[in-house]
Amino acid sequence: MEPSRSSIGFARRRREGAVWSDPERKLRTLESFARTEADGGRDIAAAARKASDPELRAHLQRHARDEVRHAELFHRRAQELRAQVGVGVQRDDELDPRYDLSRGRPASEVDAHGFLKLALFDELGEVAYVAMLHVAEQRAAELFQRHSRLLHEDPATQAIFLEILKDEKYHVAYTRTTLERWRAQGRASEVKAALKSARGSSFLEAWKRLGLRSTAGFGRVVLCLAYFTIAAPFALGLRRRSADGSWDVPQPGTLQSLREQG
Amino acid sequence: MNVLGLSAFGGASAAALVRDGVPVAALREERFSGKKNDATFPRRAARGVLRCAGVSERELDAVVFYEKPLRRFERTIVSRMRAFPRGARAFADDVFLWLGDRLWLADKISEELQVPREKVLFCEHHLAHAAAAFWASPCEQAAILILDGEGEWPSTSLGRGSQQGIELFSQLRHPHSLSLLASAVASYCGLESRPGEPLLFALATHGEPRYLRQFETLLGCGASGELRFGEGVFRLPWNPASGFGPALVAELGEAREAGSRLRYEGTQRRDADVAASLQAALEALVLRWARELQARAGCADLCLGGDLAWNSSLVARLGREALFQRIFVPLDPGDAGAALGAALYATKLLGGEVARGLDHGFLGEQLIGDPQPSARRLEPAAIPDEIARRLSCGQLVGWMHGRAEWGPRALGHRSLLADARSQSAVDRLRRLVKRREPWLAFSPAVLAERAGECFEIPTQALACSRAMQVAAATSAELRAQAPSLVAGDGTSRPQLVSRDADADFHAMLSCFAARTGVPYVLHTSLNQRGDAIVRGESDALALMERTPIDAVVVEDRLYEARV
Predict the structure, then answer these.
(1) Rounded to a whole number, what is the distance in Å from the CA of B531 to chain A's nearest CA?
(2) CB-based contact A88 B192, cutoff 8 Å
(3) Contacts of residue A85 in chain B, CB cutoff 8 Å?
(4) Which end of chain B has less neighbouring CB within 10 Å, N or C?
(5) What pairs with residue B473 in β-bridges?
(6) Any chain B CB within 8 A of the CB of A233?
(7) Tens digits of per-residue pLDDT, B384-394?
(8) DSSP characters for chain A?
C-alpha cells in the first residue's frame, strides 16, 4: 500500500511542480484558482442566506467573504504575472484543463471542489452541506499546503497560498465545530452519514472526472486523426476556395424553415 | 399565443416570453448564476420568465431557439477545415462539444422545458436580431442593419421591416465580419478578445486614427461594399484564445503584450490610436452600407442590431450623418436580445400579430424581497429625496425597486448612484466597487427636459439615449464638474430619464437637481466588476458589506452600511 501511495504522491508532485515552473501554466492556474474561489464565494453566500442557524449563517458569511478575497488575491497575482509572461487571458469557456489544478471539471454544474452545486443546500439540507464543505476545505487545505511548498522560488505567490491557508484552517475548524455541535444535539447519525456521503461523493466525483477526462482525451485524439485522414481531402479543397466576402441574397424565412434546425 | 424565445452558447444566454405579440417577460441567465455573460443553456431564465408571466410549460405554443444549430455547426467545421492543418485541435474540441449536446438541441429543449418536440422551432440568427431591433421600435417600416460577430454564416445583414414582416435582402458571410475584426484588434491591444470589444471602443475615444490607411488595407473593401479580409487577419479558426493573425502585426507592428502598460495618454497613445483607427474605418464602412441600405429599403428610419450596435460612437455618427430621420437600437442588441427577437419573429410566422415598440425595459423579475431586521422603513413619498440627499453628501447609494431591467444595463431599478462631482465618491466607486480602468468613463442619468444644458445628442438618435446607447458631446461645464462622465473625446453616454419612462427615477433626479442645481447623477449597475447585476435584496446587502457602498434602498426599506 505504502509504495503505491508514495508513487502517486511522487507523480502528483512532478505534475504540479511542472505546472508551477512553467510561467504560462502558472498564470493559467492562478486565474483558474481565482475563478474557483469566486464561484465558491457565490455558492457559499447563497447558502448563508438560506441557513436557519444564526451561528452557522455568520460563519458562512465570513467564509463567503474569504473566498471572494482569495479570488482577488489570485486575480491580482495573475495580473502581475501576465505582465511578465505576456500572454492574453482566456474566456471562462476556454479554460484548458491542463492548466487547471484546482478543478479539472467537465461541467459548470460541478463546483470548485468537485461537488454538484445545483441547489445542494436546498436539496440536502444544512448538515449535508456543512459536511461537504468540511471535506472540501480539508482537501483544499492539503492542496494549498502542497502548492505552497512547491513555490519556494516565487515568494510572492507562496505568500498568497500561506495567507489563504490560514483561512482554510478556520474553515475546517468552524465546519468541524458545527458538525460536533449538531452531534452533541443528538444528530450524530445524521452527521456521520453526511460525512460518509461527502467523502464518498468526493471520491466518486473524482473517479467520474478521471473517466470523463480520459474519454474526452481519447475522443479528441480520434477526432484529430479523423481531421488528418477522413477530413483532409475536403479540408484541402476548402482551403483552395477561400471564404467569399461578397454580398449574398438570403432565402426568405418561412414557417416550414422555422421547423428546421439547418 | 405564448411563444418562448431562447438564446444560448453564443453571447449571454437568455429567455423571453411573448404573449399575443407583446413581450411580457425576459431574463438573462446571468441574473441567476451571478456570472456576467453566462452563456450556458438558460434553464433557470426560462423557468423564471414562465413564473413572471404566470404561464405553465403546457400553455406554451412554441419554443424558439435563436439560431439554426446545424448551420452553425457547419460553419464551425468548415472554418476549422479551412485552417487545415492548424485547425486540428480546435476541430477536435468543437466536434466533441457539439456531439455532446448541441447537435441534439431540439431534444434538450423539449426535455428541459417539458414541451413536445414539435413545438420546438429554430429561427435564423440574423432574423432574430432583426426582429428584436424592428419590433422594439415604434416604426411602421424601417431599414434594418445587423452587424454581428458569430452565429451561423451571416455576419452582416441588410433588410427591411414592415407590417408584412421582416425581409433580409443582402448578407455578408463569416469570417468577413467587422465584429470579429474588433475582437481580433482587442486581442492585439492585449484585451480579452470578445469581452474586450467595449473596452476597445472606449479606448478609441482617447486616440487619433493614425492607422486608418492600414485598416483600409486590411478590410480590403470592394466597390460594392463587400469585404475581402486578407489571409492571416485572424487566428480564430485554430486558436480561439488569440484572435489576431500575422497580417495585423505586419500592418500595425508588434502587438501590445497583455498586462503591459496600456498606451492611451500623453505622448504614448499607440494602443488608443490603433483602436481609434479601427473605429474610424468601421464607421466609414458602416456609413457606406447604411447609404446602400437607405437607397434599397427606401425607409426614413433605421433599426440597428447585433453586437456592434453597442458601439455608441457609431450610433452617434449614423445620427450625425442624417441618412435616416430616426435611429433605434433595442435595449439588448446582442445575443441575449435575440431570444426576444426569435419569439417575436416566430409569433409573426405562426400567424399572430406583433405589437410595435417596447414601452419600457422592465421585463425582468419582480424584486426578490428578503427584508432584514436592520431595515429602516421610509415613507414612499420621501424615498427620492432621501436618496438625493445622501448622494449630495457624497454617498454611494444602491437603489432597487420594481421589476428588473431587460438587458445588461441598469436603467434605474437595479442601480448604483453617486454624485459625479464628488471626487471621493467616484474614486471609491472606480477602485473598490467597479475596479474600472481609469480611461473608462461612467454614464450619467439626466433629467430628459434638462439634458440639453449638458449634452448635445444627435436628434436622429435621441431614442437611443433612453439606455445609454449613443455618444453625446458634453458642455464645458459638465467636463469641468464631472470628468469621470466624459470619455477621451469629450463625449458621454447619457441616459435621458423622462417622467413617462420612469416616474420614480425622474423624481429622484428632480430632488437632486433641487438640492444641487445639477440635473444628472452618475449611474451604473448594482454589481461588482465581473458579476451580474444583483438579483435579490440579500445579494445587494452582501454587496454593500464587501464594498464601500454607503446605503441601499430596497423598495421602501433603507439599509445603511455599518461604519
Answers:
(1) 10
(2) yes
(3) 259
(4) C
(5) B456, B491
(6) no
(7) 999 999 999 99
(8) -HHHHHHHHHHHHHHHHHHHHSHHHHHHHHHHHHHHHHHHHHHHHHHHHH---HHHHHHHHHHHHHHHHHHHHHHHHHHHHHHHH------GGG--GGG-SS---SSTTB-TTS-B-TTHHHHH-HHHHHHHHHHHHHHHHHHHHHHHHHTTT-HHHHHHHHHHHHHHHHHHHHHHHHHHHHIIIIIHHHHHHHHHHHHHHHHHHHHHHHHHHHHHHHHHHHHHHHHHTTSHHHHHHHHHSPPP-S-B-PPPP-HHHHT---
How far is the C-alpha of B491 from the C-alpha of B493, rounded, in Å? 7
- Minimum Cα–Cα distance from A254: chain B residue: B349
Judged against a pLDDT cut of 70, whether residue A205 lies above it is answered with no
ipTM of the complex: 0.79
Measured between alpha carbons, how far is B401 from A23 in angstroms, rounded to an integer?
Answer: 47
- pLDDT tens string A78-130: 877 776 665 544 433 333 333 333 333 333 433 433 333 444 566 668 898 89
At residue B240, the pLDDT reads 57
**Residue at B438: amino acid letter:** P
pLDDT of residue A117: 43
Q: List Cβ neighbours of B492 (8 Å cut-off, separation of 6 or more).
A: B441, B443, B444, B455, B471, B472, B474, B478, B485, B486
Residue A186: Cβ-neighbour burial (10 angstroms; 0-12, 13-18, 19+):
exposed
Segment 201-220 of chain A within 8 Å of chain B by CB: 216, 219-220
B82 with A239: Cβ contact below 8 A? yes
Distance between CA A195 and CA A203 in Å, rounded? 12
Residue identified by cell 441534439 is B104
Structure confidence at residue B480 as a pLDDT band (50, 70, 90): very high
Nearest by CB to B91, which of A223, A239, A259? A223
The grid coordinates listed for B87 are 485547425
Distance from CA of B511 to the nearest CA of A (A): 35
Cα gap B28→B331, rounded to integer Å: 13
Which pairs from A195-201 meet CB under 8 Å and 24+ separation?
A195/A131, A195/A134, A195/A135, A197/A128, A197/A131, A198/A115, A198/A128, A198/A131, A198/A132, A198/A134, A198/A135, A198/A136, A199/A135, A201/A115, A201/A132
Dist CA A70 CA A66 (whole Å): 6
Length of chain B: 563
CA distance B166 to B180: 25
Residue bearing cell 442593419: B145
pLDDT for B25-81, tens place per residue? 999 998 887 778 888 899 889 999 999 999 999 999 999 999 999 999 999 898 888
